[in-house]
Amino acid sequence: MNKWLKGLVATGIMLLGLVAVPHSISADAKPNYTIATDTTYPPFEFQTQNGSYRGIDMDMLKAISKEEGFTYTLKPMSFNAGVQAVQAGQVDGLLAGMSITPERKQSFDFSTPYYKTGVVVAVDGKNKSIKSLDDLKGKKVAVKTGTAGAQYAQSIQKKYDFKLSFFNDSNTMYNDVTVGNTVACFEDQPVMGYAIKQGTTLKVITKPANTGGYGFGVKKGQNAKLLKSFDDGYAKIVKSGEYDKIVSHYVGKGAYNYKANAAKNEKPTIWNIIKDNKSALRDGLIKTIELTVFGILLAALWGLFLGVLGVMPSKLLRGLSTTIIYLFRGLPMLVLAFFIYIGLPNLTGQKIPAFTAGLITLILNEGAYIGSFVKGGFLSVDKGQLEAARSLGLPYGKAMRKVVMPQGIRLTIPSFINQFIITLKDTSILSAIGIVELTQTGTLIIARNLQGFRVWLIIGAMYLIVITLLTWLSNWIEKRIK
Length: 482
Known about the structure:
The chain is of the alpha/beta class. Helix content is about 60%, strand content about 15%.
């Protein structure tokens, strides 16, 4: 058992070293920027079958960067998280079909407006009772968090007396309307038109309202060079006609259609979806496994430390252990992830990579649960054994290490196995801060093909297979170390 503990500690130290190693700085003289985008917002942003990002915004950014001689790294995340990431300084800018509004101008500096749009209201295609805004009285409607559509809906909510339901992505919002949980949704006109073209069974019942322009946004007072490069590059591609070609490709006559161009008239079967998205599904699975393995090993070390503190003779140390466990068990993981990824950079001014922030979240949250049951395992060992060891002349630390800890940890092995599986499932929450793991991969695929039921069935089956394999592995390890 002592060999197993030493091996666990050594592994944890090695993993901490790997996580702490900074990425090498590129010798390329071109400036590199980190750009957040909501890749569930076609035709402006979406992920293709091979994992690349396309759409009006994505193609435009690629053309502008080529003209202006800068490189960029895309960070896919929900629109609301992207706004917060810019404000926290975690990313340099946000390009996600963001409407320029007076409220946003208080926190953002915007580029020249590059696309004029307006908000429309759409209902299920079979719904004949909702024909105008007046028919929404007393009904529940769907909006996407942080968008111009949500702001417009809130501005007229009292006038038309409807209730709001908020969603983080467009596809979930559309599905909520089609299944009847809400009667209508507010969406930008080109996005709604693209979704209908892809087969979404909704129909628009209003003319565009609250018209305005989309802009590229950076944190107010910062990244002026990036903003100028964007404006200069945009002016160049407009003058050359390249911008018009990009827009026409997605929303003009004969525009890009996922079903026609990608599916090759194949039926959207589960097998075809897997075949078309195998690389994206593979990468998402790998990222999930990486987070799980690193997270559970480091959380085990942290939890073991908290468990030891929890049985120390010192009241101060026991109280410290109890407080830490109470704090991080009580905080919802999503709140903790946002605090680490967005809150801390606001306080310190230092960026934290999304993977590192996600890993720290797992360590603190899962480690608190591990610390709780490790402490319980130690306390379940008969006190007489510790007293007997002390009476034989062993100091407290050695008596704990040689007598109590081996027995206590053996008692907690089933709990360790269960926590391993819980950690795997909890990694899905980290998609909110831009980590493209398995759940976020499913969201990106659905944004493109709108096959929610089939995609989530695939994702669920992949989780179930991995959990089954992990359970078999954990049971094998349990038998070996007992």
